[in-house]
Write a structure and sequence with these properties.
By secondary structure, the protein is mainly alpha-helical. It has twelve helices and no strands. It has helices spanning about 5-15, 25-35, 40-65, 85-105, 110-115, 130-155, 180-195, 195-200, 205-220, 240-250, 260-265, 270-280. The chain is globular and about 60 Å long. About 30% of the residues are buried.
Amino acid sequence: MDINSTVNAFASFYDHVVPGNPALPYFELGWRYMTENYSKFAIATYGTILIHEVMYFGICLPGFISQFLSFMKIFKIQGQKETFEKQWMCMKRLLLNHFFVQIPLITGSYYYTVMMNIPYDWDTLPRWYSVLGRCFCCAVIEDTWHYFFHRLLHHRRVYKYIHKVHHHFQVPFGLVAEYAHPLETFILGAGVFIPMLIFANHVFFLWAWMFFRLLETIDVHSGYDFPFNPLHLIPGYAGARWHDFHHMNFNGNYSSTFVWWDKLFGTDHQYKEYLSKKELGMVIPEKKDN
Protein backbone atom coordinates (compact mmCIF):
# COMPACT_ATOMS: atom_id res chain seq x y z
CA MET A 1 0.00 0.00 0.00
CA ASP A 2 1.49 3.36 -1.00
CA ILE A 3 1.58 6.46 1.21
CA ASN A 4 -1.40 8.19 -0.43
CA SER A 5 -3.57 5.09 0.02
CA THR A 6 -2.54 4.86 3.68
CA VAL A 7 -3.37 8.52 4.27
CA ASN A 8 -6.73 8.20 2.51
CA ALA A 9 -7.57 5.09 4.54
CA PHE A 10 -6.70 6.90 7.77
CA ALA A 11 -8.79 9.92 6.74
CA SER A 12 -11.79 7.70 5.98
CA PHE A 13 -11.44 5.92 9.33
CA TYR A 14 -11.06 9.25 11.13
CA ASP A 15 -14.20 10.67 9.52
CA HIS A 16 -16.27 7.69 10.68
CA VAL A 17 -14.93 7.52 14.23
CA VAL A 18 -14.39 11.14 15.29
CA PRO A 19 -17.43 13.44 15.60
CA GLY A 20 -17.56 16.33 13.15
CA ASN A 21 -16.41 19.80 14.16
CA PRO A 22 -19.57 21.92 14.66
CA ALA A 23 -17.68 25.05 13.59
CA LEU A 24 -16.51 23.52 10.31
CA PRO A 25 -19.59 24.50 8.22
CA TYR A 26 -19.15 28.15 9.22
CA PHE A 27 -15.45 28.01 8.44
CA GLU A 28 -16.24 26.49 5.04
CA LEU A 29 -18.82 29.20 4.38
CA GLY A 30 -16.30 31.93 5.23
CA TRP A 31 -13.53 30.33 3.19
CA ARG A 32 -15.73 29.91 0.11
CA TYR A 33 -16.90 33.49 0.43
CA MET A 34 -13.29 34.67 0.55
CA THR A 35 -12.18 32.67 -2.49
CA GLU A 36 -15.26 33.64 -4.50
CA ASN A 37 -15.13 37.36 -3.77
CA TYR A 38 -11.41 38.13 -3.61
CA SER A 39 -8.63 37.49 -6.08
CA LYS A 40 -5.75 35.17 -5.30
CA PHE A 41 -3.46 38.19 -5.27
CA ALA A 42 -5.61 39.93 -2.64
CA ILE A 43 -5.83 36.78 -0.50
CA ALA A 44 -2.12 35.97 -0.64
CA THR A 45 -0.94 39.56 -0.26
CA TYR A 46 -3.40 41.67 1.73
CA GLY A 47 -4.81 38.65 3.55
CA THR A 48 -1.37 37.48 4.65
CA ILE A 49 -0.32 40.97 5.76
CA LEU A 50 -3.51 41.39 7.79
CA ILE A 51 -3.23 37.94 9.36
CA HIS A 52 0.44 38.47 10.21
CA GLU A 53 -0.19 41.76 11.99
CA VAL A 54 -3.27 40.51 13.85
CA MET A 55 -1.48 37.31 14.88
CA TYR A 56 1.70 39.04 15.98
CA PHE A 57 0.19 41.73 18.17
CA GLY A 58 -2.62 39.43 19.31
CA ILE A 59 -0.17 36.81 20.56
CA CYS A 60 1.95 39.55 22.22
CA LEU A 61 -1.04 41.01 24.06
CA PRO A 62 -1.33 38.45 26.94
CA GLY A 63 2.33 38.94 27.86
CA PHE A 64 1.94 42.72 27.76
CA ILE A 65 -1.11 42.57 30.03
CA SER A 66 0.62 40.13 32.40
CA GLN A 67 3.12 42.78 33.52
CA PHE A 68 0.23 44.69 35.14
CA LEU A 69 -1.12 41.63 37.01
CA SER A 70 0.59 40.99 40.34
CA PHE A 71 -0.37 37.31 40.46
CA MET A 72 1.48 36.70 37.18
CA LYS A 73 4.85 37.65 38.71
CA ILE A 74 5.38 34.08 39.88
CA PHE A 75 5.71 33.06 36.22
CA LYS A 76 8.19 35.84 35.36
CA ILE A 77 11.59 34.35 34.53
CA GLN A 78 13.71 37.42 35.28
CA GLY A 79 12.39 39.52 38.12
CA GLN A 80 12.76 42.89 36.46
CA LYS A 81 10.97 44.19 33.39
CA GLU A 82 11.91 46.72 30.75
CA THR A 83 10.74 50.30 31.20
CA PHE A 84 7.80 51.54 29.17
CA GLU A 85 10.16 53.94 27.39
CA LYS A 86 12.18 50.98 26.10
CA GLN A 87 9.04 49.04 25.24
CA TRP A 88 7.80 52.02 23.21
CA MET A 89 11.19 52.29 21.51
CA CYS A 90 10.90 48.60 20.62
CA MET A 91 7.39 49.15 19.23
CA LYS A 92 8.51 52.04 16.98
CA ARG A 93 11.43 50.11 15.52
CA LEU A 94 9.26 47.02 15.17
CA LEU A 95 6.67 48.94 13.13
CA LEU A 96 9.42 50.25 10.86
CA ASN A 97 10.66 46.69 10.44
CA HIS A 98 7.17 45.44 9.64
CA PHE A 99 6.28 48.14 7.12
CA PHE A 100 9.61 48.49 5.33
CA VAL A 101 11.04 44.95 5.54
CA GLN A 102 8.48 42.27 6.36
CA ILE A 103 5.46 43.57 4.48
CA PRO A 104 7.44 44.01 1.22
CA LEU A 105 8.63 40.41 1.67
CA ILE A 106 5.08 39.20 2.29
CA THR A 107 3.94 40.76 -0.99
CA GLY A 108 5.91 38.01 -2.70
CA SER A 109 3.53 35.39 -1.29
CA TYR A 110 1.22 35.52 -4.29
CA TYR A 111 4.02 34.96 -6.79
CA TYR A 112 5.29 32.08 -4.66
CA THR A 113 1.88 30.38 -4.72
CA VAL A 114 1.69 30.82 -8.49
CA MET A 115 5.21 29.48 -9.04
CA MET A 116 4.60 26.46 -6.79
CA ASN A 117 1.01 25.93 -7.97
CA ILE A 118 -0.35 26.25 -4.41
CA PRO A 119 -4.17 25.82 -4.32
CA TYR A 120 -6.61 28.17 -2.59
CA ASP A 121 -9.90 26.28 -2.90
CA TRP A 122 -11.85 24.66 -0.08
CA ASP A 123 -11.95 21.17 -1.59
CA THR A 124 -8.16 20.74 -1.37
CA LEU A 125 -7.85 22.22 2.12
CA PRO A 126 -5.52 19.87 4.08
CA ARG A 127 -6.72 17.95 7.13
CA TRP A 128 -5.75 19.28 10.56
CA TYR A 129 -3.40 16.37 11.29
CA SER A 130 -1.66 16.96 7.95
CA VAL A 131 -1.22 20.64 8.85
CA LEU A 132 0.19 19.77 12.29
CA GLY A 133 2.58 17.19 10.87
CA ARG A 134 3.82 19.53 8.18
CA CYS A 135 4.25 22.37 10.68
CA PHE A 136 6.35 20.09 12.87
CA CYS A 137 8.56 19.13 9.91
CA CYS A 138 8.91 22.79 8.97
CA ALA A 139 9.86 23.62 12.56
CA VAL A 140 12.63 20.99 12.50
CA ILE A 141 14.10 22.44 9.30
CA GLU A 142 13.74 26.04 10.50
CA ASP A 143 15.32 25.18 13.83
CA THR A 144 18.31 23.66 12.05
CA TRP A 145 18.77 26.74 9.86
CA HIS A 146 18.26 29.04 12.82
CA TYR A 147 20.79 27.26 15.03
CA PHE A 148 23.72 27.48 12.63
CA PHE A 149 23.06 30.97 11.29
CA HIS A 150 22.14 32.36 14.71
CA ARG A 151 25.38 30.95 16.05
CA LEU A 152 27.23 32.51 13.12
CA LEU A 153 25.66 35.90 13.89
CA HIS A 154 27.21 35.66 17.35
CA HIS A 155 30.71 35.46 15.89
CA ARG A 156 32.73 38.36 17.27
CA ARG A 157 33.51 39.66 13.78
CA VAL A 158 29.86 40.13 12.77
CA TYR A 159 27.90 40.30 16.03
CA LYS A 160 28.17 44.07 16.59
CA TYR A 161 27.04 44.85 13.04
CA ILE A 162 23.83 42.79 12.90
CA HIS A 163 22.66 40.63 15.81
CA LYS A 164 23.55 43.13 18.53
CA VAL A 165 20.37 45.02 17.64
CA HIS A 166 18.21 42.10 18.80
CA HIS A 167 20.21 41.76 22.01
CA HIS A 168 19.53 45.36 22.97
CA PHE A 169 17.00 43.86 25.40
CA GLN A 170 18.57 41.62 28.03
CA VAL A 171 15.16 41.07 29.59
CA PRO A 172 13.00 39.97 26.64
CA PHE A 173 9.27 40.54 26.18
CA GLY A 174 6.95 39.45 23.39
CA LEU A 175 7.47 42.38 21.02
CA VAL A 176 11.22 41.69 20.98
CA ALA A 177 10.62 38.56 18.88
CA GLU A 178 10.86 40.47 15.57
CA TYR A 179 12.97 43.37 16.83
CA ALA A 180 16.04 42.88 14.64
CA HIS A 181 18.40 44.33 12.08
CA PRO A 182 16.93 44.11 8.53
CA LEU A 183 19.77 41.79 7.48
CA GLU A 184 18.94 39.46 10.35
CA THR A 185 15.32 39.43 9.21
CA PHE A 186 16.49 38.23 5.79
CA ILE A 187 19.08 35.75 7.10
CA LEU A 188 17.04 34.02 9.79
CA GLY A 189 13.77 34.57 7.94
CA ALA A 190 15.06 32.40 5.11
CA GLY A 191 14.79 29.48 7.51
CA VAL A 192 11.04 30.09 7.76
CA PHE A 193 10.61 30.17 3.98
CA ILE A 194 12.81 27.23 2.93
CA PRO A 195 10.70 24.42 4.49
CA MET A 196 7.62 25.81 2.74
CA LEU A 197 9.24 24.84 -0.54
CA ILE A 198 8.95 21.24 0.60
CA PHE A 199 5.79 21.04 2.70
CA ALA A 200 3.42 23.82 1.56
CA ASN A 201 0.37 22.26 -0.13
CA HIS A 202 -2.27 24.96 0.34
CA VAL A 203 -2.44 28.69 1.10
CA PHE A 204 -4.12 27.76 4.39
CA PHE A 205 -0.97 25.89 5.38
CA LEU A 206 1.12 29.03 4.74
CA TRP A 207 -1.01 30.84 7.30
CA ALA A 208 -0.95 27.91 9.74
CA TRP A 209 2.86 27.71 9.57
CA MET A 210 3.10 31.48 10.02
CA PHE A 211 0.85 31.23 13.09
CA PHE A 212 2.93 28.44 14.63
CA ARG A 213 6.19 30.26 13.99
CA LEU A 214 4.89 33.52 15.48
CA LEU A 215 3.40 31.70 18.47
CA GLU A 216 6.70 29.93 19.14
CA THR A 217 9.01 32.94 18.78
CA ILE A 218 6.78 35.24 20.84
CA ASP A 219 6.45 32.56 23.51
CA VAL A 220 10.22 32.15 23.93
CA HIS A 221 10.66 35.94 24.06
CA SER A 222 7.71 36.55 26.38
CA GLY A 223 9.75 36.53 29.60
CA TYR A 224 7.13 34.25 31.20
CA ASP A 225 7.21 30.51 31.75
CA PHE A 226 3.61 29.37 32.08
CA PRO A 227 3.23 25.78 33.35
CA PHE A 228 0.02 25.30 31.36
CA ASN A 229 1.68 26.25 28.06
CA PRO A 230 0.52 23.63 25.47
CA LEU A 231 3.69 24.18 23.41
CA HIS A 232 5.57 22.15 26.05
CA LEU A 233 3.71 19.10 24.75
CA ILE A 234 5.90 19.25 21.62
CA PRO A 235 8.82 16.80 21.94
CA GLY A 236 12.10 18.62 22.52
CA TYR A 237 10.48 22.07 22.78
CA ALA A 238 12.96 24.58 24.24
CA GLY A 239 10.58 27.14 25.73
CA ALA A 240 10.89 30.57 27.30
CA ARG A 241 13.41 29.73 30.03
CA TRP A 242 15.79 28.28 27.45
CA HIS A 243 15.80 31.38 25.25
CA ASP A 244 15.50 33.82 28.14
CA PHE A 245 18.88 32.56 29.34
CA HIS A 246 20.31 33.31 25.87
CA HIS A 247 19.26 36.96 26.22
CA MET A 248 20.54 37.13 29.78
CA ASN A 249 23.86 35.42 28.99
CA PHE A 250 24.29 36.52 25.31
CA ASN A 251 25.79 33.12 24.40
CA GLY A 252 24.61 29.52 24.19
CA ASN A 253 21.11 28.14 23.58
CA TYR A 254 21.14 29.19 19.92
CA SER A 255 18.22 27.04 18.73
CA SER A 256 14.84 28.59 18.03
CA THR A 257 12.33 25.83 18.80
CA PHE A 258 14.06 22.64 19.96
CA VAL A 259 16.96 21.78 22.26
CA TRP A 260 18.53 19.10 20.06
CA TRP A 261 21.27 21.03 18.24
CA ASP A 262 22.46 22.82 21.37
CA LYS A 263 22.67 19.51 23.22
CA LEU A 264 24.45 17.82 20.31
CA PHE A 265 27.13 20.52 20.02
CA GLY A 266 27.32 21.29 23.72
CA THR A 267 26.30 24.94 23.35
CA ASP A 268 23.93 24.53 26.28
CA HIS A 269 26.75 23.90 28.78
CA GLN A 270 26.57 27.41 30.27
CA TYR A 271 22.84 26.98 30.75
CA LYS A 272 23.42 23.66 32.52
CA GLU A 273 26.03 25.28 34.77
CA TYR A 274 23.62 28.12 35.52
CA LEU A 275 20.87 25.67 36.52
CA SER A 276 23.28 23.67 38.68
CA LYS A 277 24.45 26.81 40.50
CA LYS A 278 20.86 27.94 40.91
CA GLU A 279 19.94 24.64 42.55
CA LEU A 280 22.86 25.03 44.95
CA GLY A 281 21.87 28.62 45.72
CA MET A 282 25.01 30.02 44.11
CA VAL A 283 23.10 32.30 41.72
CA ILE A 284 22.34 35.78 43.08
CA PRO A 285 18.54 36.20 43.24
CA GLU A 286 17.22 38.65 40.70
CA LYS A 287 15.73 41.89 41.92
CA LYS A 288 11.94 41.80 41.82
CA ASP A 289 9.80 44.72 40.72
CA ASN A 290 7.69 46.35 43.37
